[in-house]
Design goal:
Chain lengths: 173, 393
């Protein structure tokens, strides 16, 4: 495939599924600086691995695989390397003008969700992210490399843990 | 039967998805492409310099080592480091290319990704845990062999005039150097083990926990290439294992050292035999006998107690002979006096082989100097023949 076709395909997928990059980056980091760094790394990995994409999975699960793979092996870069790196991406709000009460509530819920996700184990965080994004059991199994049955078991536990963290009904470590 | 997928999004899902619809990610594709190229070049350059520093340096050291050995006329144990360098290069090449793990793909599943990272970490841990055997022990053996040869095989006494004080001095110097070498290698070993403890092992534990969380609960064990490492238990070395490894390491060190020095001793003996042909086989004595391990010599038909030869005391000559020829010291004194005196730095004159002997009469106890005593092959042959007839002890 020529380079410009890769670029078109990549941009198309990114517009549809790019939010996975931001979500994974935010779920697996604690500061906005680290989040930027990890998202940048995920984008680089995704661009690099696009030519190897076999079409055996959907673009949505492919993005999640790349993102989670990168997040698991990501190591915080030193300050010098971070400064040298130019920002590759930016997040823009789709709606303009004032935020509605509903949107504000969603934003608040999402903030609390991220706080809870940070306290989950890495595997549970991955399952919760996939669940919140509405992936099917089959897709989750494909991303995680486990059976659909086991996805059900893990998801139930992760949801319970998430609910406890969201409601504050959990044992402090 | 598969459980049903979640059909009705709950409040959390709804908030999550609605929020993500409010944002859009835009990227600079040109910059992304350039960044990928830059990273690839950085990675290739990093790999290149790693290879250069590890393998290239070892390869470059081989000719450097040989040249240094020749120019400084260093003993043969110096060159034992060359096979060590070859071994390092061979081991690293073998390990890097033959045991190379299949490359992980960025779009592998999470479990595959964790398994791959775990395997990489285990390889690295294995390498560092065994750094003594493949990296440190071989040069340590050759290094100590070199010191041992330089210290023990030299003809020049460290503490004149030799004897027990010289032997003690040699052992002291050798022990001090050995301790120094062992301390340096232990320092390198400790750095490697610190890296395992502080970086690799915690990360391995993290990966194991992650992999376990992705395992079906019926699976009790985490598969891995190294069964010991993948047990899931923190792998600090047990005391028994450390003691066993230390004994084994010291055993190999001692065996290697003794073997090298024994081979060296035999080669030196062979070399001595070769070199002996270069010295004239002459003797100033008509006969030699050894009451109380001190030589009595016959000159002009009379027996004397030997005090000195060409100004060198009998004690000095015998000590040198003991040190140089070991069990053959008496034989060398009797049959190869020219060689003995030459190697002590006092060769008899080249044109005519005459000896000045200081002797003590056995009957009158009078000391006298016998000048220009001719050294002849016939006298030496007579001594050698008498030695053959002498009953062995």
């Amino acid at each position: 495939m020529p380079d410009d076709e890769y670029e078109t395909l990549f941009l198309d997928w990114l517009s549809k599924h790019g939010s996975a990059v931001m979500k994974v980056a935010r779920a697996y980091t604690l500061t906005s600086e680290e989040c930027q760094d990890l998202a940048q790394e995920i984008l680089l990995q995704a661009w690099r691995s696009l030519p190897n994409f076999q079409g055996q999975s959907s673009p949505a699960t492919w993005f999640y695989r790349v993102a989670l793979h990168t997040a698991m092996n990501w190591q915080r870069k030193d300050k010098r390397r971070r400064l040298r790196q130019q920002p590759l991406w930016e997040v823009q709000a789709v709606t303009s003008g004032c935020e509605s009460a509903e949107q504000a509530q969603y934003r608040e819920t999402v903030e609390r969700l991220y706080e809870a996700i940070h306290r989950l184990s890495k595997t549970e965080a991955a399952i919760v992210l996939l669940y919140l994004d509405g992936l099917s059991y089959r897709e989750m199994a494909e991303v995680l490399g486990i059976t659909e049955n086991y996805v059900g078991v893990k998801l139930n536990r992760a949801k319970t843990a998430l609910r406890e963290l969201m409601t504050g009904d959990h044992d402090e470590p | 039967m598969n459980p049903d997928p979640p059909r009705h999004p709950d409040d959390l899902q709804q908030a999550w998805q609605a929020h993500s619809e409010q944002t859009r990610m835009t990227i600079d594709v040109d910059l992304l492409r350039r960044e990928v190229q830059r990273q690839r070049q950085d990675f290739q350059s990093q790999m290149f310099w790693r290879d250069v520093s590890e393998i290239g340096l070892a390869i470059l050291m081989i000719p450097g080592w040989i040249v240094l050995g020749i120019t400084a006329s260093l003993p043969w144990t110096w060159y034992l480091s060359v096979p060590v360098f070859v071994w390092w290069v061979g081991f690293m090449l073998y390990y890097r290319w033959r045991l190379k793990l299949p490359e992980s793909q960025p779009d592998d599943s999470l479990r595959q990704c964790v398994e791959h990272s775990l395997a990489e970490h285990e390889h690295q841990i294995w390498l560092l845990r065994n750094v003594v055997w493949w990296y440190l022990l071989p040069p340590m053996v050759t290094c100590l062999a070199f010191f041992a040869q330089v210290i023990f095989a030299t003809d020049v006494p460290l503490v004149p005039p030799g004897g027990w004080s010289d032997i003690l001095a040699r052992w002291l110097v050798f022990s001090w150097l050995s301790l120094f070498v062992i301390a340096i290698y232990y320092f390198v070993y400790a750095i490697n083990q610190h890296a395992v403890r502080s970086q690799l092992e915690p990360r391995r534990q993290e990966l194991l926990a992650l992999l376990t969380s992705l395992q079906e609960e019926s699976a009790s064990e985490v598969p891995g290439e190294y069964p010991i490492l993948t047990s899931g238990v923190y792998q600090a070395c047990s005391r028994r294992r450390v003691v066993f490894a230390a004994i084994l390491g010291l055993g190999i060190l001692a065996f290697g050292l003794v073997s090298i020095l024994y081979v060296g001793y035999r080669l030196d003996q062979q070399d001595s035999l070769e070199r002996r042909r270069d010295y004239p086989l002459l003797s100033p004595f008509e006969a030699v006998r050894w009451p109380n391990s001190h030589p009595e010599v016959q000159v002009n038909g009379e027996w004397f107690r030997l005090i000195s030869v060409n100004g060198l005391s009998t004690h000095e000559i015998l000590e040198f002979s003991r040190h140089t020829y070991g069990p053959l010291w008496q034989k060398r004194f009797e049959e190869d006096l020219v060689e003995l005196l030459s190697r002590m730095g006092h060769p008899p004159g080249d044109s005519q082989y005459l000896a000045t002997l200081e002797v003590e009469s056995l009957t009158t106890m009078e000391r006298k100097v016998l000048k220009d005593v001719p050294m002849t092959a016939e006298k030496r042959f007579a001594i050698k023949s008498a030695a053959r007839r002498r009953p062995t002890k």
